[in-house]
């Protein structure tokens, strides 16, 4: 009896060892890959961080209003966030590559899908970011112009501008990601068609200067009588 | 070389103005004379001179450099005899040189026998030969000409106890041209010299011949009548002789002196001369073109007489106050150089002895429409002596060589009629005919060249003038044209190099031939003609279509 | 690599023909056919009277006029090719014109650059810029602006005017006190349509690299004055007369702010080494002691000013949060709630407001143009306070009030330095 257990154990151990030995190289390869991947990802992160610092990415994100969001969520600056995000994505990517090399079934397909999805994710993030930036900028521009031209309810106008742009941006993002495209598009179409200002924004998108001057001149000319009592500042 | 017998010889001539006293002394008394002048005619012929204008040489107390005449029919003894003059006249004619003499018609010296008689008593037959008055208030519309010395146009005569009229110095009483006897006498004087062979008269101070109450006593119609009469008699009896008017007036006021070709043949263009100097200093052609614009057309037989300097001060009567101040500040910093609303300096000192400027001014003199007059000594760039009184600073002895007295006279230096220029820059050792003749690039050799070029075509003497107005205002450019011949003259009035584009579209297809070197320049095409010019440079181009 | 020249071939040829000048008059125009003829005549008279012997030229930098303005300028050039004008001139006085190249719309910056380039190429000793918009230009103005440069070797002559006490509030309440406090020089009109400058100063300014920078292009005249100050050039002021514009530009507050305050703020960063060490201010030499103030009553819409101030403070809160300190913003909101009769924008608060705006501008907390626009309603509030406080004031009292404002700016300068440095 004792010998049987011992031999079974031996065999089991043997099998384990063999399996282990079989698996070990791959594990080691994966670990090496992970290490290399970490190194690459770290390098990419550092480079990206420098580039972002160079282009003053933080300031851009401040203008976009993204920084405020980040600080509310107790997250570090936009540069840091993006760099770290890219780091993790890169590392994950390398690891997944390694995993697919190891030949674990089922995962390969998912990995492929993942890598296909990645560029679109980046584009969507890109669009989102700059869309937020534009929304913030134009809504503020509209606010200032309205206030200085003594147009009633300037904040409403500003909000309207911001909403239109964000809705537009979101619809593009969703389309890019391939999620509920139709719904978003329809929603946007309604909003776009409903508000007359939407036209002005599209107009303003292409000819920002013209739109601003047009607005100011148009509104100011109608109120010429009021200006008789105005002083000249210079 | 025989005389040029064309009727309008004065249009092609180059005139040399000289006072016999200053030129050459043959008898060692320190004063130039006719024999001396006679001996220098070859020099003048080589220079390219066609006519000599002699300053007054009649007997005179010489209180106004000979313009105060005491005898109209003789030669002042210090200059020689009538016979010397005749000989000189003949020699000149032999060399193709005509002689123009001064006829001071407006006034005489108070030493003239006529005045001596006139003042002796109120009943004297010659009383009316001069203008007398019991008061000095008549004709008070007339200005005073010699502002620096005279306070009034009337002078008191203690002998006949009345005032006599004098537009110039008080010792130069005006003749009364309302008196037919005076007019007849003047003609007799002219006849005397014309018969001897004199070719022309320069009539001095003609605007002032006649005076009338309530006028400024200048340029009156009666004066023109007198002059036309003289001209008529001249043409009748002595065709081919010439009358030259000295009238310091605006061009519009000068025009009547040409009449319809029945008064003077020539007149001095006084207003142009200061403007040439002004244009040079301003580096702007505007003063020059403007005055020539205001210059009226004259009858085809008439001619303007152009000059850079003469025996008088560079007159600034015919310019505005702003212009006069500018000229004083630019050319006569020292008050001593100023006299009677003018500047009493010679050409070379005025141009700071700058050879290029001297050439440019002579170039303009020779190419603007009119007959050029060279003042003696300016052809070698003589200097002046402003310390000599009145205008004598520009009437110093001619500098012939580096010998004692500049080769002018063998007399001891103290006996010269005026001291010779001696400073290191303009003195006779530095500036003299002998030295310059030996030097290839001297001023006098250049003058000989330019007179030669001028005479190579009739365009300069007789042609029309059309100004070009290039945008660069420092360039004075014009076209002289006579029949088929056309010459383009371009002058750079600036002290710095300039580029100029000329609109020569009308002359498209012409090749430009530079007249001094005779080299061909590019042909005129469709584009503006570009010329680049050095400081004070000028070009004369013959326009030739081949 | 050679940058494409902004001077056209034709203009260069014209400059070549003009040659060296002693005096250059720059005249930027755009559709000024109604007034340009008389302005040019006045300029010519002024030059011929004041500087009869000087070589002079009038350079018209035109921004593409459609009404024949350039021809009106060149047509009265005084030279021998044209029929005699009724002005007597010793020399040619060219009037040349150029349409500044590669531009489709008028730009003061390009016009000024063209004038500076011409001044350098023609080696002009004394220059002056005139404006076709000033209605009461006199020939003497030329002597007043050029004289100190031509005869006394000054480099910049700024004008002073006699104005109505309530005109030009942007200058008296912001530009003048701030420039004075920061740069230490008391120049009343740092931004004016006409001013004189020396060839030296012009060449130096032409060499600066603000010309190709799009954002820094506005308000080039103000930058010019500041460049003269920082470059330690000799500056003086000259009284011209009343300031009368052809068109009253009353409602153009925002463009005015851009041209002046925007330019000033954008100059603060590069000029920091200069103004950070200056304390107090020095008076500037002026040729006539008192420029006078006109006191007639003027009808002004105070209610509108009050409204726009309050609306601005309310509606732009989110924008102000980025620009102002919390304390300042709170105070502003407080005074916005005051009743009309009690409304007052305290001097100290105004100075702090302006300084905080300047610091925020430097840090670009939001788009810089938006910062400038946000200042407009606040300025209106200050203007209203000025009007109220000086309603019945005499000329002397007003001057004293302005002087007080200046001193407040000077006193709080350390505050600006403090908030400025906090960004570095």
Describe this structure in words.
The complex is a heterotrimer of chains A (234), B (546) and C (424). Helices cover 86% and strands 0% of the residues of chain A. Chain A has 10 helices and no strands. Chain A has helices at 2-54, 57-64, 66-72, 78-102, 107-148, 154-177, 181-194, 197-206, 208-222, 224-227. Chain B folds into 3 domains: 9-105 and 180-455, Glycosidases (TIM Barrel); 113-165, Oligo-1,6-glucosidase, Domain 2 (Oligo-1,6-glucosidase, domain 2, Alpha-Beta Complex), CATH 3.90.400; 462-544, Golgi alpha-mannosidase II (Immunoglobulin-like), CATH 2.60.40. In chain B, 28% of the residues lie in helices and 18% in strands. Chain B has 17 helices and 21 strands. By secondary structure, chain C is of the alpha/beta class. Chain C is built from 16 helices and 9 strands. Chain C is elongated and about 70 Å long. The interface between A and C is medium-sized, with 26 and 41 residues.
What structural class do the secondary elements of chain B suggest?
A: alpha/beta
Level of helix content of chain C?
Answer: 40-55%
CATH topology of the largest domain in chain B: TIM Barrel
Tally of extended strands of chain B? 21
Q: Indicate the radius of gyration of chain C in whole angstroms.
A: 22 Å
Mean pLDDT level of chain B? 93
Low-confidence stretches of chain B: none
């Amino acid at each position: 009896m004792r010998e049987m257990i011992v031999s079974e154990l031996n065999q089991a151990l043997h099998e384990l060892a063999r399996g282990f030995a079989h698996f070990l190289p791959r594990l080691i390869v994966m670990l090496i890959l992970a290490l290399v991947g970490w190194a690459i990802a770290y390098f990419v992160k550092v480079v990206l961080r420098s580039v972002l610092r160079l282009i003053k990415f933080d300031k851009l994100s401040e203008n976009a209003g993204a920084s405020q969001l980040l600080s509310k969520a107790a997250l570090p600056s936009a540069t840091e966030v993006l760099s770290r995000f890219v780091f993790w994505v890169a590392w994950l990517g390398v690891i997944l590559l390694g995993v697919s090399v190891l030949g674990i079934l089922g995962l390969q397909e998912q990995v492929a899908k993942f890598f296909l999805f990645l560029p679109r994710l980046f584009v969507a993030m890109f669009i989102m970011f700059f869309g937020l930036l534009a929304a913030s900028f134009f809504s503020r521009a509209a606010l200032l112009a309205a206030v200085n031209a003594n147009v009633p309810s300037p904040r409403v106008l500003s909000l309207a501008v911001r909403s239109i742009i964000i809705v537009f941006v979101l619809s593009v993002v969703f389309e890019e990601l391939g999620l509920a495209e139709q719904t978003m598009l329809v929603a946007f179409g309604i909003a776009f068609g409903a508000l007359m200002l939407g036209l002005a924004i599209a107009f303003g998108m292409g000819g920002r200067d013209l739109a601003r001057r047009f607005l100011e001149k148009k509104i100011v000319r109608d109120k010429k009588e009021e200006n008789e009592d105005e002083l000249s500042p210079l | 070389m025989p005389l040029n017998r064309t009727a309008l010889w004065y249009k092609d001539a180059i005139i040399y103005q000289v006072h016999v006293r200053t030129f050459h002394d043959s008898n060692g008394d320190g004063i130039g004379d006719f024999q001396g002048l006679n001996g220098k005619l070859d020099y003048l012929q080589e220079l390219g001179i066609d006519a000599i204008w002699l300053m007054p040489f009649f007997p005179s107390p010489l209180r106004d450099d000979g313009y105060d005449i005491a005898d109209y029919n003789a030669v002042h003894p210090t200059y020689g005899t009538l016979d010397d003059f005749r000989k000189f006249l003949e020699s000149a004619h032999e060399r193709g040189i005509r002689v123009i003499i001064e006829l001071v018609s407006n006034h005489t010296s108070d030493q003239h026998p006529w005045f001596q008689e006139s003042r002796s008593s109120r009943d004297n037959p010659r009383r009316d030969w001069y203008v007398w008055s019991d008061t000095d208030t008549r004709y008070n519309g007339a200005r005073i000409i010699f502002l620096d010395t005279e306070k009034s146009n009337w002078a008191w005569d203690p002998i006949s106890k009345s005032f006599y009229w004098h537009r110039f110095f008080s010792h130069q009483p005006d003749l009364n041209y309302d008196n037919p006897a005076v007019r007849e006498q003047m003609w007799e004087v002219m006849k005397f010299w014309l018969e001897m062979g004199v070719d022309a008269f320069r009539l001095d101070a003609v605007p002032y011949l006649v005076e009338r109450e309530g006028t400024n006593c200048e340029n009156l119609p009666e004066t023109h009548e007198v002059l036309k009469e003289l001209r008529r008699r001249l043409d009748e009896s002595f065709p081919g002789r010439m009358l030259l008017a000295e009238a310091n007036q605006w061009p519009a006021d000068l025009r009547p002196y040409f009449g319809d070709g029945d008064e003077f043949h020539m007149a001095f263009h006084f207003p142009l001369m200061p403007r040439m100097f002004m244009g040079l200093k301003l580096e702007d052609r505007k003063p020059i073109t403007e005055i020539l614009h205001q210059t009226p057309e004259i009858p085809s037989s008439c001619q303007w007489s152009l000059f850079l300097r003469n025996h008088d001060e560079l007159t600034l009567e015919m310019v505005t106050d702003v212009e006069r101040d500018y000229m004083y500040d630019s050319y006569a910093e020292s008050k001593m150089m100023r006299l009677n609303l003018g500047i009493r300096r010679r050409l070379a000192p005025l141009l700071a002895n700058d050879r290029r400027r001297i050439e440019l001014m002579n170039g303009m003199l020779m190419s603007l429409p009119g007959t050029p007059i060279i003042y003696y000594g300016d052809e070698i760039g003589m200097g002046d002596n402003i310390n000599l009184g009145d205008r004598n600073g520009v009437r110093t002895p001619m500098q012939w060589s580096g010998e004692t007295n500049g080769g002018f006279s063998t007399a001891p230096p103290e006996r010269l009629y005026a001291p010779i220029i001696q400073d290191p820059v303009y003195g006779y050792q530095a500036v003299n005919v002998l030295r310059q003749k030996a030097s290839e690039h001297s001023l006098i050799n250049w003058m000989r060249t330019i007179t030669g070029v001028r005479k190579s075509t009739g365009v300069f003497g007789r042609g029309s003038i059309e100004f070009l107005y290039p945008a660069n205002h420092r360039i004075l450019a014009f076209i002289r044209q006579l029949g088929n011949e056309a010459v383009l003259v371009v002058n750079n009035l600036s002290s710095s190099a300039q580029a100029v584009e000329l609109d020569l579209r009308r002359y498209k297809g012409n090749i430009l031939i530079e007249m001094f070197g005779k080299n061909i320049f590019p042909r005129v095409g469709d584009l503006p003609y570009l010329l680049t010019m050095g400081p004070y440079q000028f070009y004369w181009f013959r326009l030739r279509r081949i | 690599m050679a940058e494409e020249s902004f001077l056209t071939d034709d203009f260069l040829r014209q400059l070549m023909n003009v040659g060296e000048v002693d005096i250059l008059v720059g005249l930027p125009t755009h559709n000024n056919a109604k007034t340009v003829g008389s302005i040019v005549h006045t300029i010519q008279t002024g030059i011929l009277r004041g500087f009869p012997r000087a070589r002079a030229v009038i350079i018209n930098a035109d921004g593409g006029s459609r009404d024949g303005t350039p021809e009106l300028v060149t047509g009265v050039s005084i030279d021998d090719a044209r029929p005699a004008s009724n002005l007597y001139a010793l020399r040619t006085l060219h009037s040349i014109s150029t349409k500044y190249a590669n531009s489709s719309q008028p730009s003061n910056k390009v016009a000024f650059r063209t004038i500076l380039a011409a001044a350098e190429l023609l080696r002009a000793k004394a220059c002056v810029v005139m404006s076709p918009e000033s209605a009461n230009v006199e020939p003497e103005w030329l002597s007043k602006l050029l004289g100190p440069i031509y005869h006394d070797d000054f480099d910049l002559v700024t004008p002073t005017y006699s104005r109505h006490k309530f005109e030009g509030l942007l200058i008296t309440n912001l530009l003048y006190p701030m420039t004075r406090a920061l740069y230490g020089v008391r120049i009343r009109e740092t931004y004016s349509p006409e001013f004189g400058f020396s060839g030296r100063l012009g060449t130096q300014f032409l060499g600066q690299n603000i010309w190709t920078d799009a954002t820094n292009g506005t308000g080039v005249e103000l930058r010019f004055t500041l460049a003269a100050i920082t470059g330690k050039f000799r500056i003086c002021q000259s009284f011209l007369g009343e300031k009368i514009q052809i068109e009253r530009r009353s409602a153009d507050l925002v463009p005015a702010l851009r041209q002046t305050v925007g330019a000033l703020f954008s100059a603060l960063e590069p000029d920091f080494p200069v103004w950070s060490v200056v304390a107090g201010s020095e008076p500037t030499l002026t040729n006539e002691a008192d420029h006078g103030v006109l006191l007639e009553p003027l009808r002004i819409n105070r209610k509108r000013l009050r409204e726009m101030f309050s609306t601005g403070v309310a509606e732009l809160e989110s924008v102000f949060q980025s620009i102002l300190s919390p304390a300042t913003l709170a105070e502003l909101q407080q005074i916005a709630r005051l009743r009309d009769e009690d409304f007052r924008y305290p001097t100290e608060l105004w100075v702090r407001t302006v300084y905080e705006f300047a610091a925020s501008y430097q840090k670009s907390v939001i788009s810089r143009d938006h910062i400038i626009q946000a200042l407009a309603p606040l300025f209106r509030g200050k203007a209203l306070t000025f009007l109220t406080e000086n309603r019945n004031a005499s000329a002397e009292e007003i001057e004293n009030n302005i002087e007080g404002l200046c001193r407040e700016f000077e006193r709080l300068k350390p505050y600006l330095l403090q908030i400025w440095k906090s960004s570095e």
